[in-house]
Amino acid sequence: MNDKRYIARSTAIAARVLGDETMIMSAANSTLFTLDEVATLIWESADGVTPIEEIVAHKICSQYEIAPDVALKDAEAFVDELSQHGVLLASDQPIAEPLKSLKAVR
Amino acid sequence: MPGLTANMQVSDVVVEIGGLPIRLRCDDPAFVSQIQERYAGYVASSNEANFVFDIELAPAGTASGDEDVRVTWDSGRWLMRRGDFRAEWNPSTARGRIEQTVNPYSLDCVLRIVHTLLLARKGGFLLHASSAIRNGRAFLFSGVSGAGKTTMARLAPADAAMLTDEISYVIPREGAYFAVGTPFYGELARAGENLRAPIEALYLLAKGPENKIEPIAGAEAVRGLLGNILFFARDPDFVRMVFDAACDFVGRVPVRQLTFVPDSSVWELIV
Predict the structure, then answer these.
(1) Using one digit for the tens of pLDDT, what is the confidence trace for A57-67?
(2) In this structure, CATH architecture of domain A6-91
(3) Which of A80, B179, B180, B191 could form a disulfide with B196 if both were Cys (CB 3.0 to 4.6 A apart)?
(4) Which residue does chain B place closest to A31, by CA atoms?
C-alpha cells in the first residue's frame, strides 16, 4: 500500500508570483489566495509526481530551521485547505497529468 | 393588387466610450432622445459602429427590481439579465438585443457589462473609482461605496478634469495604462469629461484623521485592486483575464493607500 501523498496544481486557476508571494485565483468562484514564501515553495513543487514528504524534506527543511514532523504537519494542513477549494489536487497515487476537474482527489 | 405593408421607423444613436462606438437602435424615438441626453458628450459624430444593439421596450411595471445581475456565456452569446432587463450579445456577429423598460439606467448597466467583457480581452477593466486628469496625468481614487470616490471628485481643484466620480475606464496602450472618461456616474450625477491620459497612480481610499499616502505593493496591491474591479461574468476564461490584467497593472502603475480628511487639502498631495 502506498502511504505517500502526491499533490498537483489545478489547471482551473490563475496564478502569479509577486516577489516572495504567490497569488492564486480560483477560476471557478474567483476566490483569492495569497501564499507566503514557504507555501509558494510547496505550490511550485506540486508536480503530481513528487510526494509531499519529499517536497518538505528537500525544499523546506533544507532551507529553514524547522523540525521535519512539524513542517510536514503544516504542509499537510496547507494542502488540505487548498484542496478543499479545488486549487490544489491531492492523491495517494501519482497524478500523471494535471486534472481539469476542480474537485480535489483525496 | 399591392400588398399591405407596415413601416416601422427605427431611430438610433451611436454611443462611443473608450473609443468603442456602439449603435443603439430602438423604434421609440423618445427613448432614443433620452439616450442622447443621458450620454451627451459620448454620442459619436460618426455613424460608424463596432457593435449594434436593438432595444425592445417592455411595458412599464414588468420589471422585477430585486434580481441581481447575472452574466453567462451560452452557445456563443453573452446572456445578461437583471430584474429590469434581459440582454444578449453575440460578439462574433457584433449584434445584440436588449429588452428593458423605459429606464436609461438599465441600458447603463448593459453598457457597463459589455465594456467589462470587451476590456478584459484587451487587458483593461472598469474600476469602482473616481478619476481625474491633472497636469496631463490621470489619478484614480478607488474604494467601496462610502470610501470617498465622489468626495474626491467634489473636492477636485479647478485645474483637474474629472473623468468620472464612480466607474473608471482603464485600458493598456503602448506599454502604459490610460484612464478614459466615462458617462457612468455616481452621486455626482454628472458624466465625466470625454478625455484620456496615462495613469500616474491608483489610490485606494480610506478616511482618517490626517492626509497621508502609503505605498502598497505586490499581493496586497493586487488584492486591493481586484476587490474594486467590476466583475460580472463568472466564466473561467474571463476570471483569468481579469486576474492577469490586475497583476499586469500593479506591475506598471504605483498603487498607494490614500488616507484623507474630506476637505480640499487632500488634493495638495495629488500632483
Answers:
(1) 999 999 999 99
(2) Alpha-Beta Complex (3.90)
(3) B180
(4) B239
